[in-house]
Design brief:
It contains 5 helices and 3 strands; from the N terminus they run H-H-H-E-E-H-H-E. By secondary structure, it is mainly α. Among the domains are: about 35-60, no CATH class; about 115-170, no CATH class. Strands 1-3-2 form a 3-stranded mixed sheet, with no helix packed on it. Helix 2 (about 75-85) runs antiparallel to helix 3. It starts with a helix and ends with a strand.
Length: about 170
């Protein structure tokens, strides 16, 4: 089955763009669990084994270009997070626990902790997706244009972030 000319050029343009961004290998036929790589991967700078190399056979010569922080085998981030969260006695404690938690790679790219806004214990809680650029900048969930729209929607039903009579709590 032949690709239409426009589709072919679009596909080639996308491939060129990916190469320009530094893509060096194709996705393998089978998925690779990057969190379950062999123990040899624990040392920084080592390349994946040939079994994980995908289409290229020279993967052993290339350095590992992953931004993931290498952890010792003794650190279980999930267990550490569960213990830390269980020790928190209030939302303020939980906020501080999350702010101080060292085993989350997402904090390396973020500017601020986006935890919650509004009145804690409110009968209405709105959960959003992962923080976007504006939320990261302000440290507040539902910031920017999305926040303005949500505030208008809440006002239409007689609720608000800081409304003592009809409170709402927002979180990501």
């Amino acid at each position: 089955m032949k690709m239409e000319s426009a589709e072919r050029y679009a596909a080639l343009a996308l491939l060129e763009w990916q190469i320009e961004l530094g893509v060096t290998e194709a996705i393998c036929d089978t998925p690779v669990d990057r969190f379950a790589l062999p123990a040899a991967m624990d040392a920084p700078g080592l390349a994946p084994s040939a079994a994980h190399a995908g289409a290229g056979g020279d993967a052993q010569k290339q350095p590992l270009a992953s931004p993931v922080v290498q952890r010792s085998a003794q650190t279980d981030p999930v267990a550490a997070a569960e213990r830390a969260a269980a020790a928190a006695q209030s939302l303020d404690d939980l906020r501080q626990t999350i702010a101080d938690f060292p085993h989350c790679d997402l904090r390396r790219g973020g500017r601020s902790l986006v935890f919650g806004d509004g009145i804690a214990g409110a009968p209405l809680m709105v959960l959003g997706e992962a923080p976007d650029k504006e939320e990261d900048r302000t440290g507040t969930p539902f910031a920017g244009q999305a926040g303005v729209l949500l505030d208008r929607m809440l006002a239409a039903i007689g609720r608000g972030r800081a409304d003592e009579e009809a409170p709402v709590y927002l979180a990501t």
